[in-house]
């Protein structure tokens, strides 16, 4: 009888030990599964995250670029006007030098 009681006690201890091992294995496998799942979700969302950052950059940059474009267009308009004025002034200076020659000829006659 003593052997059978001893056997039952050993079996009970083994069952408790295996239950602890099973619980630890379940916990570990659940952590591995969750970590793998999180990794796969991150990898799947990585391209869309990159597109999101690009979209944010564009959203922040476009208003500034439009301001610079308007400023460049305004400066271009002013520069074209100044070039036109300069060409007109050069034509007038050339005309004055020709007039001086004509006026000198008229005064000497």
Automatic annotation (TrEMBL):
<comment type="similarity">
    <text>Belongs to the BORCS8 family.</text>
</comment>
<dbReference type="InterPro" id="IPR019320">
    <property type="entry name" value="BORCS8"/>
</dbReference>
<keyword id="KW-0472">Membrane</keyword>
<dbReference type="GO" id="GO:0005765">
    <property type="term" value="C:lysosomal membrane"/>
</dbReference>
<feature type="compositionally biased region" description="Polar residues">
    <location>
        <begin position="18"/>
        <end position="29"/>
    </location>
</feature>
<keyword id="KW-0458">Lysosome</keyword>
<protein>
    <submittedName>
        <fullName>Uncharacterized protein</fullName>
    </submittedName>
</protein>
<dbReference type="GO" id="GO:0099078">
    <property type="term" value="C:BORC complex"/>
</dbReference>
<dbReference type="Pfam" id="PF10167">
    <property type="entry name" value="BORCS8"/>
</dbReference>
<feature type="region of interest" description="Disordered">
    <location>
        <begin position="1"/>
        <end position="29"/>
    </location>
</feature>
